[in-house]
Amino acid sequence: MVLRAGLLALFLLSSVGVATGYGDRSFNANQATSGTGDSVDTTVILFITTTHQAGQSFTPTRTFVLSNVTLYVTNVGAQGDALNVTIQGDVGGLPDGTTIAGGANVRSGTGWLDFPVTPRPTLTAGRAYWIVASNGAAQGYTWIHSNADVVAGQSVQATNGAWGTPTSVDLTYVTYGIPAEPEIAVGLAVDRRSTPPGGPATFTVYLNNSGFRPAPNGWVNLTLPAAMSVVSDNAASVNGTSTGPASWRFGGVRNGPNAFAVTVTVNPAAPGGTFLTTIAHLDYTDSLGASQSSSTASATVLVALKPKPMYLAHDALPVGTWDRLVAAPPTGVLEDFEGDGAAGMTIGSAGANWTLVPAFAKAFWIRGGVTATLFFDAPNPAGSTATVNATLYDRGTSGTAVIASVATTVSVDGNAGTFESRSLDLGIADHLVLRGNITELRVFKVSGADLWLGYNRSDLPSAVVVTTSTYISVDRVDLLDARGIASTFSSQDRVRLQANVSDPFGTGEIASVMGNVTAPDGSAAATQATFLRVASDPGGTWALYEYSYNQPTDSGAWSFLITATEGNGVSVTAAGTFTVAFPVLDLTVTEDPPAPKVDGVATFTVGYANTGTAKAATAWMNVTLPSELVLVSDTTGGLRTGASSWTIPNVDPGFHAFVFVARVAGAPANQTLLVRFALAYSDAKGFGWTAAPRSLELAVVVPPVVPEPPNPFLFLLLGLVAAGGGAAGLWVWRSRKPAIEEAFLIHRAGVLLYHVSRSLAGEGDKDRDILGAMLTAVQEFVKDSFKYGEGQELNKLEFGDFGVLIERGKDVFLAAVLAGTGHEAEIRRQLRRTVDEVEAKFGKVLDGWGGDMDP
Is the Cβ–Cβ distance between 245 and 260 less than 8 Å? Predict the structure, then answer.
């Protein structure tokens, strides 16, 4: 939304008188006023008269208590008539006619007009409401519109009580109110900048509720430094009760400012110059008892004040009575600074001046005693005495101010060349020197003998010493990752801590910046780590220091403490925290059944538990399947990117699993299939991890090959079936020397019951083809033989180079394949005995079996 300066002024002026509660603010608003009535857009009627009403809808994005509606209107008729505004509900996209709240006001001319409403209704987030304006005058008012669709909502005109069609051109309005639920952010202030060891300080804890409803429960805890302890408090004044040495519970924190005081004392042994920071933490609930966002605030007290010397130094110019003050101790030589032939600077009635170089880089508060420690000598062998004036000035653009001054008697002995230290007490000062002002020390003789003032040498550290509450400061601390400022880091991040440090005497006075880093378990991750200067202000006001901590391994809240020290030993600290969070995925795999059969399926449950503290932005699952396993289905919920690989987004902490099913198409010789599972993942910052891989050995059940026993009944159970075609024209009679190569035991139905082989079986494709054809011929012979009856005389056939002898029983045939001729009678007797033995043992089974192989 763009708000013109003029309208902003009107808006601010009109809003001054409308606030009716603490935290009153604007909610829904349209402050664009590019359209001005009927002449701008004739499709939008904006008149509000006895016959016309106008309405604008709005939908709150959060629940609030309405206190005021402000409209941008023009009074086009009598200037004393009132404009009435009501808040109505919505029905069918139009005002529902029921007044929720209302108000009236009068103005002349054009401008913003406020309508405080009564009662003060609670408007619910997500529900549409209407601002309806009406007037009893003939000419009435014009409600200004934006001539555009600026905000969510619609405007509508009613004529003689009948609403027209809503339009997207928005009327100008602002709604004011207070959030319905309590909103409290803790505040903390202290009544003084510094306190001496053993001294008091009073903190004020603010619990300002800018929400309409009271917070039924609030808890405040003060984290005090070890050198501070609570003496008293008045938390009861805001319905608070103590729950500990520095903690309180509050019931019913009402809308408006709420505060209580806590008085503390500083340990008498606390070292001067120590900054003691107290942190206030607030938790509270809304009206329904739900916890709301916590908040913290801090305040710091300086223990006592440390002296800060400004040393007299030579500016390297050959002569002159003007020299400089510097923060660093002197390392130069003693010279005849003004060229009068005497070592040092002659302090006569004209005096001499020293100005601070460089000027203060930031405002410098001098609070407490000011002294000048000066080294004097004199040319008179009998000694010299003078009344000396020493004055410290602040010369700024608005004038010159005396910070502190003294006129005192100084006496020295007559040992020429031996400078004696004298301390001049300039008194107590409480003065703020602004940045860039000239700080000047002037020393001159009021009366008596001239003196020589020695300085600029390490054994002549003449200086003006002030006590101050302004020291080195850590003005800002930033935490950065590779992308920029961050508060949460991955364990693979480089955490960069940057401290912007300034000193009133300039960056040259910053002696060191060190830091400690503490892991979530309280162990020291880095101690007194040196921060390196990486940048500085060209004007010398500040310098940027940095320290990097690589790859914080533990998740949780880390803390750091930065200590900056200036040249006089004063140190300040800055503390903070950062969070380390990263995903940790673990892979588990189970299968069901544990030993699937060939042509069966194996179901794998793949679990991947994120035991880390952050989600994995992306996970990549890859399953290496052997060729005998074929993927059938999966339930990953991710994107399948390969035959058995998936990409899974946004893996939140917790346990996750998916199932995939694979068909067992075969089994290797060892009947064991090895399945490998690999899981890689990345965090929200793009850093990658790999979970420990998993392998699964899957035992596959293969139906055993049962050796064929010489038992026809068992053959039936195993279902070894063979069938063939006709063999007509293949029978011939031959005689040659026999050798049994094959034997077939065949049921009368033509079913092969048993077969043994000496040479042909498994000896190549050609022999297997011959054997198959031979078996087919024998089976056809058997079926034909039984068909023709027992009188059939055919008991031998010739098949290529082989002869086949066939011996018939009641239910079976035994066929022997012979190579060669001779000894056929003996062979037939053997065949006969075998047939008789089979039928004797299994005749009952064979006689009742018709060759049916179905179970």
Answer: no
CB-based contacts of 693: which residues, under 8 Å, 6+ apart?
587, 676, 677, 678, 679
Residue with the two structure tokens 């300066």: 5
Residues 522 and 445 in one domain: no
Structure confidence at residue 849 (pLDDT): 76
450-489 pLDDT per residue, tens? 999 999 999 999 999 998 878 889 999 999 999 999 999 9
E strand residue ranges, 362-471: 364-377, 384-396, 399-412, 420-433, 438-448, 451-454, 463-468
Domain count, the chain: 6
Domain interval for residue 272: 187-303
Assess whether 124 and 247 both reside in one domain: no
Q: Which amino acid is at 481?
A: D
Name the nearest CA neighbour of 207 among 250, 263, 247, 236.
250
CA dihedral 112, 118, 122, 124 (to 10 degrees): -50
DSSP string, 667-705: --TTSEEEEEEEEEEE-TTS-EEEPPPEEEEEE-B----
Same domain? For 534 and 598 the reply is no
CA angle 725-728-734, nearest 5°? 120
Burial of 751 (0-12, 13-18, 19+ CB in 10 A): buried
Q: How many CB atoms are located within 10 Å of the residue 724 CB?
A: 17
CATH number at residue 689: 2.60.40.2430
Strands 322-326 vs 352-356: parallel, antiparallel or unpaired:
parallel
Indicate whether 194 and 175 sit together in one domain: no
Are both 758 and 836 inside the same structural domain? yes
Contact 138, 109 (CB under 8 A): no
* CATH code for position 53: 2.60.120
Beta-ladder partners of 393:
402, 440
Total-model pTM: 0.48
CA distance 483 to 495: 11
- Is residue 228 classed as helix, strand or coil in its secondary structure? strand
**Nearest-angstrom CA–CA distance, 453 and 49:** 91
Which pLDDT band holds residue 565 (cuts at 50, 70, 90)?
A: very high
- Report which DSSP code applies to 109: E
Asked if residues 420 and 448 have their Cβ atoms less than 8 Å apart, the reply is no
Answer yes or no: do 399 and 479 share one domain: no
| Residue 236 and residue 160 in one domain | no
Only one residue has tokens 């509720």, namely 209
- List, in sequence order, every residue forming a beta bridge with 460; answer none if it has no partner: 457
DSSP reduced 3-state for 250: strand
- Flag whether 853 is in a domain: no
Residue 266, burial from CB neighbour count under 10 angstroms (0-12, 13-18, 19+): buried
**Distance (Å, whole) CA 469 – CA 465:** 13
How far is Cα 326 from Cα 337, in angstroms, rounded to an integer?
A: 16
| Beta-carbon contacts of residue 101 (< 8 Å; ≥ 6 apart) | 66, 86, 87, 117, 118, 119, 120, 121
DSSP annotation string for 459-506? TB--EEEEEES---EEEEEEEE-SSSB-SEE-TTSEEEEEEEEE-TT-
Angle at 759 between CA 757 and CA 765, to 5 degrees: 100
Whether 18 has a pLDDT exceeding 70, the answer reads no
Q: Which residues, other chains included, contact 374 with Cβ-Cβ below 8 Å and sequence gap of 6+? A: 312, 390, 421, 422, 424, 443, 453, 455, 462
Enumerate residues 6+ apart whose C-beta is below 8 A from 401.
393, 394, 395, 431
pLDDT digits (tens, 9 = 90+) for 771-827: 556 666 666 665 665 555 554 545 777 766 777 888 888 888 888 887 767 677 788
User: For position 845, what pLDDT does the model report?
Assistant: 78
Is the N-terminal amide bond of 182 cis, ω within 30° of 0? no
In a domain, 40, yes or no: yes
Name the residue among 202, 189, 221, 187 with its Cα closest to residue 266. Answer: 202
